Amino acid sequence: MQVRTPGYLAWRRFKRNKAGVIGLILVIIMMSFALIVSVTQPFPNTSVLDASLLPGEDPAHLLGTDIAGRDMVGLLAWGTRTSIVIAIAAEVFVMAISIFLGFVAGWFGGVLDYLVTRVIEVFVAIPPLLFQPLFMIILGATLPNLVLALGILAWTEPTRLVRAQTLVYRDREFVNASRGLGANTSSIATMHVLPNIMNPFIVSVSMSIPAIILGESTLSFLGYGLSENMPSLGKMIGISWQYIQAYWHMALLPTACLSILMLGVSLFGDGLRDALDPAGG
Amino acid sequence: MFFYTIFMLRYLITRVVGLIGVTLIVSFIAFMMLYQLPGGPFSEEKQPLSPVAMAAIKAKYNLDKPFYVVWFSWVTHAVQGDFGTSYQAENVPITKLFADHWGVSLQLGLLSLAWSVPLGMLFGVVAAIRRNQWLDYLLRFLAIVGTTLPGFALTVFLVFIFAVRLHWVPTTGWKPFENPATMVLPAFVFGLVPFGSLMRYARNGMLEALNQDYVRTARAKGLVESAVIGRHALRNVLIPVVTVLAPMIPNALTGSAILETMFSINGIGRYFIDSISSRDYPMALATAFIVATLWGISYLVTDLTYTIIDPRIRVGGR
Predict the structure, then answer these.
(1) Ramachandran assignment for A223, one of left (phi > 0), alpha (psi -120 to 50 degrees), beta (any other)
(2) ipTM field
(3) Which of A21, A37, A121, B38 has the lowest CB atom count within 10 Å?
């Protein structure tokens, strides 16, 4: 008999949600596509002889080539990989910031809480389309800067959640008992408060992934994303948009990749919310 | 009641002061960043001018002083409605640029709300009534696609199908009177997010309402189903709708910068995007300032609307 751990129960709830399972499958498909192709072949910087083949014109290039004669399969896989890598990196940044600031604000209250809440209000009001391009122009179009530019505007919602949940658990009996037994703040945080708020926190973080992927592709679409020789779906769409009459595949294929990824991540996030945090959200 | 009025007044004042503070800080951050930008409009390699002429230009645009001084003078002018002149269009005051181009963004925004709000609510209610039937699944799928796919991705697909292949609508432009077909795609794409989220909320609200005791009572006393839904259940849908609708209004008013760029629509959003690449600081600042203020006001109004629609919600409470 299967042991009924919370994880098992959550997985059983998740499996019942068809949309969430479809989302997970889409994400796995896109991740394996990006991983397998980018491991087996390098980023197609060199062009083949025949520029801008349409899909199906050459069996060696299944999805055709772009206007510079680069293989579309390779470009798409590497671009998808960039989206996934940036989403993961930005979420790690967001998680670190939001756990720390949210706990500090909720636990200690007072001036610290006031400061964190006011800073959140300011960051919510910053227009992303002004801040992110300026950030990239000033600091340079590198991968770490892009992750920062996206993460700096994404930490507010999870931080608010950690703060609110910490407030809830701060005065619970088991936390008071632990404090009475002489536990220090960091061990109360890691042993008692954080494990209890993990589920809504994971949900909140997973719900912010689509916004990160969208932010990256929007920035790249406008030309403020990664520099010239770095692969990105948004950049491919931005550049090829003007050729849509003749070389439709150059715009449609990266758009399709991006759409499948976004749809998968969103559906998976919804399913995760229903499985982990059925009462909230 | 008297104490409540005092309390509300205090709450309102705190919120307005907070709003002004946030707007000031955001404009300060934006100012600081714009000042750091490499390659301004008067950078030496772009315009080889004599030092005297350069100094004159810098003095004219206040670029010879430290940035916080310039920021302060900018703010004092901005609150009086003077946002300076745009660098893109020489000697055109930004207020005039806004007056000339905001109309187009407004048309786009209002048109997209005009179809998405009624249809989103209607389809949400229909989906709830037809729960777990094929129509419900289809409408929910539409809502998911509309809210999760990025606007520019949908634009690529729709332009390819309806403009490039089928030639039903033009690929770009915005000519409401000469060629109304130009408005179809932008207004459709821009309305998809409000449509999808309204549908979702209306469906959830309706499902919740249909399970309530008062709906059962209405049915039990023999009311026809249309009256049960129209007169009793539908009211329950309105509160969530207000909460999702309110943040969409400033969004619709300021226009979608990306869509305006893709469809070559001469709205305020497109000027905003262009202002960053062409280093048009006054325009970028003015747009950010106005958009941030609109957002703040709309959040405040939303919170106040809650208390009017639903007296159970008290502002500032726990």
Answers:
(1) left
(2) 0.80
(3) B38
